[in-house]
């Protein structure tokens, strides 16, 4: 599971990659419930947009936002059937959350130590997401939120090193830059094919423990 990441601040990369501007005013690190930049594409208009969305998908039927504590990751194998994600999957609400790195725990030392995962190139990157729109019944506010899609990583050369011993290894689906537009406009068959770490660019990892005040 991925519960923590660093949203990118590279407006130049976002502009050159997607032709849109990066929004402002979001946290340096994101956890479930935090805002982060998300790119989506209209299926009918082809228009690409980038805005802030909450990490943790809030389905349209939810009574409040607390469900986001449990819906920040969506297993690619079951997203089409799970109540929280199936509408977004059916409607092909595919997005990319734009990040510099994400974090996972390594237990190599016998205790959890946070490690940072990034592209081998150190460039920002997009993680495949499902997104949805929820209307707050108390205020009428429209809230856009997302869940990262994940796949099995038991055999991934980098991601197999993380999570508790004995647990299944998982990785968010990092979308290669050449496939960004394909993912955003994908049909269900194409999306299913892309949800594999075999399509992902090369990753690297390094220890990145939190500071005492973090």
Summarize this structure as a short list of keywords or feature phrases.
mainly beta; 4 helices; globular; 12% helix; hypothetical protein yedk fold; 214 residues; 5-stranded mixed beta barrel
Structure commentary:
The protein is mainly beta and 214 residues long. It has 4 helices and 11 strands. Strands 2-3-8-7-5 form a 5-stranded mixed beta barrel. It is globular. The mean pLDDT is 93.
Strand content: 25-35%
CATH architecture: Alpha-Beta Complex
Run of helices and strands:
EHEEEHEEEEEEHHE
Q: What is the share of helical residues?
A: 10-25%
* Global Rg: 16 Å
Number of helices: 4
Secondary structure class reads mainly beta
Strand order of the largest sheet: 2-3-8-7-5
Q: Give the CATH level 1 class.
A: Alpha Beta
State mean pLDDT (0 to 100 scale).
93
Shape: globular
